[in-house]
Amino acid sequence: MIEVYTDGAAAGDPGPSSAGIFIKNGKEHYEYAIPLGELSNHEAEFWAVIRALEICRDKFPEDILSFRSDSKIVVETIEKNYTKNHRFLPLLEKINHLQSGFPFVFFKWIPEKQNGKADLLARGVLKK
């Protein structure tokens, strides 16, 4: 099972934003820090999941994915497959489409302190 930690960050609401993605595959680790453009923090959190799914589609297309995020809104939206927010709906649809290509994809909320590597990656882009 591939462990995928994601985090989004934004400097402003909206403002310059980024995604941090930390992937663990046994003893192997992959780190990604991706600029996203002008987004809100919540949108950046959704885009971090989207970018991580795209990376996993290329690197681990046959594997089970276990996503961990400190964004309750992202995890709850994906788990319920529902949002009233019109800005999040196309992001949810994109996530659903991407995850349909994997055998299983799990999402779990974790506290911020357990998501430190993804957070550092996301914030590092904004400091540049």
Question: What does this 3D model show about the protein?
Answer:
There is one protein chain. Helix content is 40%, strand content 33%. The chain is of the alpha/beta class and 128 residues long. It is globular. A five-stranded mixed beta sheet has the order 3-2-1-4-5.
Order of helices and strands: EEEHEHHEH
N-C termini distance: 33 Å
| Biggest β-sheet: strands ordered side by side in the sheet | 3-2-1-4-5
Low-confidence stretches: none
Instruction: Report the principal-axis shape.
Output: globular
Q: What is CATH's topology name?
A: Nucleotidyltransferase, domain 5
Structural class: alpha/beta
Brief overview, please?
With 128 residues, this protein is of the alpha/beta class. It has helices at 41-59, 72-80, 89-99, 116-127; strands spanning 2-10, 15-25, 28-39, 65-69, 105-109.
Keywords:
single chain; 128 residues; alpha/beta; Nucleotidyltransferase, domain 5; 5-stranded mixed sheet; 4 helices; 5 strands; 40% helix; globular
Secondary structure topology:
Layout: E1 2-10, E2 15-25, E3 28-39, H1 41-59, E4 65-69, H2 72-80, H3 89-99, E5 105-109, H4 116-127
Parallel strand pairs: 1-4, 4-5
Antiparallel strand pairs: 1-2, 2-3
